[in-house]
Description:
The protein is mainly alpha-helical. The chain is 64% helix and 6% strand. The chain contains 15 helices and four strands. It has helices at residues 17-25, 33-66, 71-74, 77-108, 120-123, 132-139, 142-168, 170-175, 181-201, 203-221, 226-237, 240-261, 298-309, 318-327, 339-358, and strands at residues 267-270, 275-280, 290-296, 313-316. Strands 3-2-1-4 form a four-stranded mixed beta sheet, sandwiched between helices. The protein is elongated, with a radius of gyration of 43 Å.
Amino acid sequence: MANESDSGQEKTEQPTPKKLRDAKQKGQVPRSKELNSMTVMVFGALGLLFLGSHMIADISGFMRQGFRLSRAEVFSQQALLERFTITIYDALAAIGPFMVLMTVVAIFTPLAIGGWAFSVDALAFKTDRINPINGFKRMFSSKGLMELIKAVAKFLVVSVVAVTFLWSKADDFLGLGAQSLALALQNGAWLIGQSFLVVSSTLILIAAIDVPFQLWDHSQKLKMTLQEVRDEMKDTEGKPEVKSRVRQVQQEMAQRRMMEAVPEADVIITNPTHYAVALKYDHDNMAAPLVLAMGKDLIALKIREIAAFHEIEIFEAPPLARALYANCKIDQEIPSHLYFAVAQVLAFVFQLRLARQHGSDMPDRPEPYMPTDEEA
């Protein structure tokens, strides 16, 4: 049954990556108690099978040592303390590998689905958790029903398998009474480990059902309405009017910086009214002329006004101005196929500047050579 939001819209959309990240930060990740129980039980059984005989042998050894105290040791407080310390170390060494195995399994099993998820919000006290009404709602919810079905299924499956296996091993268990103590302990540990492993393995079936259910249930809880997806996209990417305003501000800032660079230009090449391109060339520091600013219509007019105020030469060359505007970018060098035409203009501008300084004859105005399409 589809969930519904407060607005009445059905939650039909899969959770977005942002929704999943936010849920994980709140500690809301899929978890399977059946998977945790199964892995702990199975690995515990395997640990008893492979380490049980060694643990029993070690425990039997230091217990025998404990009953071999001499009279002097019994009445010596220092000797008893030393023997007690040795026994503790021996016990830890005997059961240590098994405990390490269980600890590793218990810690890393939950990572199989959901991964690490530590959240302070999940640890916070919430009154609804102790509200009896909410508790009854959880008991009679679909999840509560699923938990009841799992509990009954576990009981039936484990009971049938346990009774069947123990019945088949009845003779082996009864035969332990005819064996020596050491041999009976060893064989008994092996039988217990086998029984434990067989019974625990039945939980694999329960976990195989529970894990997909928990993943599905987690996804269902995080499903979103179409409106929620749209709102999230707006929050993530920004509202269209805000994005438009940001672009406008960015363009204004870029245009302002461009206009501030116009006074550094050596020449302004114009269309003469529709286009304007400001160029600068420093023979010692530049490999080619650099475009400081360019624009058309109102921006071109503004560039010409700034150039006139700072007494920068304005050179009318419509084909060259159009070519520069179409092929160049601000703060980048001009393309190689326009080198010769621009060089003609710059040479004229530099000669004109020297002629004005020294009062000599003015140079002839060149007609910039524009390459054909094949030459470009």
